[in-house]
Amino acid sequence: MQNRERWAFVQEWIFKPLLTAAMVVVVGGSVMAMLSPNTLVQLRDVFSRLREPGPHREPDRALSPSLLAELSAGGFTLFVRHASRDPAPGLDAIDRAWILNPASVPADFRQGFCLNELGRIESRLLGQFIRESRIPIGEVLSSPLCRARETAELSVGRVDRLDFALVHAKVPAPGLERSVQREGIRSLMKQPPAPGTNRILFGHWDTMDKRDFGEVKLEQAGMAIFQHSGSGLKLRATVDLIDLMHALPSPRLQQRRWN
User: Fold this and answer.
1) What is the rounded CA–CA span in Å between residue 223 and residue 80?
2) Strand 161-162's sheet: what is its strand order?
3) CATH superfamily name and code, 65-246
4) Confidence of residue 68 (pLDDT cuts 50, 70, 90)
5) Where do the DSSP E strands lie in the chain?
6) Which residues contact 59 (CB under 8 A, 6 or more apart)?
7) pLDDT at residue 46 greater than cutoff 60
8) What is the DSSP pairing of strand 76-81 with strand 161-162?
9) Smaller CB count within 10 Å for the chain: N or C?
């Protein structure tokens, strides 16, 4: 009985894995033999591009000290998703109505349309990060919708221009309007900031079409950092507000002695 058990063990854990590995080698070799040299070169180029930072590559999820130093020299476009708001079913229709005619929405209406208390605090913290990190801000553009505009005003203290290209994807009607909005954000992103400064844009979670910029996934008050260079626009990092707070030094924590 023991011999049978040993033999079953050998078959299950030694022979079968070896046979599987041999089959993988044989099949893989056959596939490689069928590929032309040009195809192999193309595959190599594809994997090489995947290693390069670019708008369709998964960006960094933290703000490194080296990137923070680069930001202080300018040359970036910072896209910020508006800070927190209250959930509001049906808000897309309210947003659309306000764009068509601001008078159609009561001036004191705020629930979901504007920031809540948490969002106002988040916006001020974003401004604290920008000031304490000494990031030079040039042009400031915002979606005209209340929550984006408030995020800009509370964080950097101004909005130089409201731009309808920065609204979210549900505001333009499907078809021509959506195409015009998509072309507008592409045009904005192509424009480099003034020398020595960074441009900052305030928008919404789906302002940027993933077909143009890849998956730009941001939490509320999160930031996508795009670098302008001779080779085009590169998405360097997408960071949440906590990542920005972590980038600020904490003398209290650094000096404390833990027992």
Assistant:
1) 4
2) 161-162, 137-142, 198-203, 76-81, 223-229, 232-239
3) Phosphoglycerate mutase-like (3.40.50.1240)
4) very high
5) 76-81, 137-142, 161-162, 198-203, 223-229, 232-239
6) 53, 224, 225, 235, 236, 237, 238
7) no
8) unpaired
9) C
CA–CA dist 87, 147 (Å, integer): 12
Instruction: Give strand pairing partners of 228.
Output: 233
Boundaries of every domain in the chain? 2-50, 65-246
The Cα–Cα gap between 76 and 63 comes to 14
CA dist 257 to 128, 240, 246, 249, Å? 27, 29, 20, 16
Is a pLDDT exceeding 80 seen at residue 40? Answer: no
Q: Strand pairing partners for 201?
A: 79, 141
Instruction: Count CB atoms within 10 A of the CB of residue 109.
Output: 13
Residue 35 pLDDT: 55
C-alpha to C-alpha distance for 42 and 114, rounded to whole angstroms: 49
Spatial separation of the C-alpha atoms in residues 228 and 134, rounded to whole Å: 19
Helix (H) or strand (E) run with residue 88 in it: none
Residue type, 210: K
Q: For 34-38, 112-116, 199-203, which range has the lowest pLDDT when averaged over its residues?
A: 34-38
Q: How far apart are CA 103 and CA 182, in angstroms?
A: 26
Provide CB contacts within 8 A for 110, sequence distance 6+.
146
